[in-house]
Write a structure and sequence with these properties.
Among the domains are: 107 residues, Tetratricopeptide repeat domain (Serine Threonine Protein Phosphatase 5, Tetratricopeptide repeat); 162 residues, Glutaredoxin (3-Layer(aba) Sandwich), CATH 3.40.30.10. 59% of the residues lie in helices and 6% in strands. It has 25 helices and seven strands. The chain has a five-stranded mixed beta sheet with strand order 5-4-3-6-7. The chain has a two-stranded antiparallel sheet with strand order 1-2. Helix 21 links the parallel strand 3 and strand 4. Helix 6 packs antiparallel against helix 7. The protein is elongated, with a radius of gyration of 29 Å.
């Protein structure tokens, strides 16, 4: 990550080559020989000599420190950590050892432990921004964006150019919900030119603002330039998922986990995709890893309880729920609320469904919502052909129509294109892959043609009603880009959900349809 990576690498391999403490001549000779071999790059030889010296003089903190540095240079971070800790126990003032201990934790992806060591170094050298950068980086990796911003804030008034600082501070502000403040640092990084870090930071800012297609475009450019930026593929996957590209998101999350198996968001999001696609067994270990990576996150424990229950492990699921209830009682109460506050906003559930009168394409017959009042419930689908979410849900919706179409009326209102006008900035990556590029309708005839194409390609067997060009029905239901409602016989909305992969659950919709059918008018 910019200049900080160079400093990290240098700190990791920089052994403390001070003179040996007084001891036996044999111990001192072995130590000096180890230092010479270490300087010459012979790590195996240096390790051998340091260990020989320590066998004769185990209380030499310099030898322990150098042995730890040699282990770290070979990538043996657990061994390095053990030696660094022994050295600090003997003499906590040895220069560089605590920093190297933090770096060994960092390189072995133990970010919580690394953060504590970097914080201690930062406390002893508050004027040096580098330990602060490492501490903040660890905080970001463990989901503590606000804490990372707080660590870096004191250095914001410095005028020196430090792109690593600009990048990390901007990211910390954006991830902690301070998008406007973060934009200042986005602009500073953007001055560095067409860098991966600039695209990543801008993409993260756009993701925070809900501009998902632009975010996906920026994050995609960053990934093409430098895919190993920490958390990049995870963010890219979230942007792709929000634009309806579940397959692209799955691939991005898998790349994120290949780079960092403890990436919380990648584990949770990929688990959700797999569970939604009928693979709860594959989702379970991902959520278990997420809960281990961030044990203080109730969402992970609730998801774990759900998957354990699905796997038939009722006792383990019960223990997880009890743990959530005891540790986060307010969160547990929200989970039990019928309103399901974790679901995307329910605009109309429990309210009278807005009335409408629209013409079915082809036949021209007028369909009015009120005509079903007291007779049959209505399953009301909104969407367009360029919406990947609608296309994904079309098969299950067709199946439910075939199963319940005689007892419930299924209708689709065809609304403005989700990704029309030649794609533009709101194009979906999935649409590009599938070659779907449908113009926005400018006339009623064009919208009818789009609706006809959608019905034919998605094999929709129930009436499709093009919305008026003013989009009044779409607006009344707040249905863009796609949504489904179950309207009871009494005209009240009994159930609603978006059609994106994370929100749409066929079993939930079917249960709502059955309940509406069985209810009295």
């Amino acid at each position: 990550m910019l200049r900080i990576t160079l400093w990290i690498a240098a700190a990791t391999v920089c052994a403390c080559l001070a003179r040996a403490q007084e001891g036996s001549e044999d111990a001192a000779t072995a130590y000096r020989h180890g230092v010479e071999l270490h300087r010459a790059g012979d790590l195996n030889g240096a390790i051998r000599e340091y260990r020989a010296s320590l066998k004769l003089d185990p209380a030499n903190p310099q030898a322990l420190s150098n042995l730890g540095a040699a282990y770290a240079a070979e990538g043996r971070y657990d061994d390095a950590i053990a030696e660094y800790r022994k050295a600090l126990a003997l003499d906590g003032s040895i220069e560089g050892v605590r920093l190297n201990l933090g770096l060994a934790y960092y390189k072995s992806a133990r970010y919580g432990e690394a953060e504590k060591e970097f914080a201690a170094v930062h406390q002893t050298a508050p004027e040096d921004v580098r330990p602060a950068l490492l501490e903040a980086d660890c905080a970001l990796r463990t989901g503590q964006a606000k804490e990372a911003a707080d660590v870096l804030a004191p250095y914001a008034s410095r005028n020196e150019q430090n792109l690593a600082y600009d990048y990390l501070y901007g990211m910390a502000l954006i991830r902690s919900g301070q998008a406007e403040a973060g934009q200042v640092w986005v602009n500073r990084v953007m001055r560095d030119g067409d860098s991966a870090e600039a695209h990543y930071l801008l993409g993260a800012s756009l993701l925070g603002k809900g501009d998902y297609p632009k975010a996906a475009a920026e994050l995609g450019q960053a990934a093409a330039k430098k895919p190993d930026l920490p958390g990049l593929e995870s963010y890219y996957g979230q942007a792709l998922l929000a634009t309806g590209d579940g397959d692209g998101a799955e691939a991005a999350f898998r790349k994120a986990l290949a780079a960092d198996g403890n990436d919380f968001d990648a584990n949770m999001q990929l688990a959700a995709i797999l569970a939604q696609r009928g693979h709860p067994g594959a989702a379970l270990p991902l959520v278990q890893r997420a809960a281990e990576a961030r044990p203080a996150t109730p969402e992970a424990h609730v998801a774990l309880a759900n998957l354990l229950e699905a796997a038939g492990e009722a006792d383990a699921a019960r223990k997880e729920r009890e743990y959530v209830a005891a540790t986060w009682p307010d969160f547990a109460r929200k989970q039990e609320s019928p309103a399901k506050e974790t679901r995307p906003a329910a605009h109309l559930q429990g309210k009278q469904a807005p009335g409408f009168r629209l013409a079915e394409f082809g036949s021209g017959r007028t369909v009015e919502l009120a005509q079903f009042r007291g007779a049959r419930p209505v399953v009301l689908v909104f969407g367009s052909y360029t919406c990947p979410q609608l296309r994904h849900a079309a098969g299950p919706l067709n199946g439910l129509s075939a199963k319940y179409g005689k007892r419930a009326a299924f209708l689709m209102v065809y609304i403005r294109e989700a990704h029309g006008a030649g794609g533009g900035e709101w194009q979906s990556t999935e649409n590009r892959r599938e070659g779907i590029d449908l113009e926005d309708a400018k006339t009623a005839a064009q919208r009818e043609a789009n609706a006809r194409l959608c019905a034919r390609r998605l094999h929709i067997g129930y009436p499709v009603l093009p919305d008026e060009m003013a989009g009044e029905v779409e607006a009344a239901y707040a249905a863009w880009p796609s949504r489904v409602y179950v309207v009871g016989k009494n005209g009240v909305v009994q159930y609603e959900t978006a059609l994106d992969e994370q929100s749409f659950h066929e079993t939930e919709l079917e249960a709502a349809i059955r309940q509406a059918i069985e209810a009295k008018p």
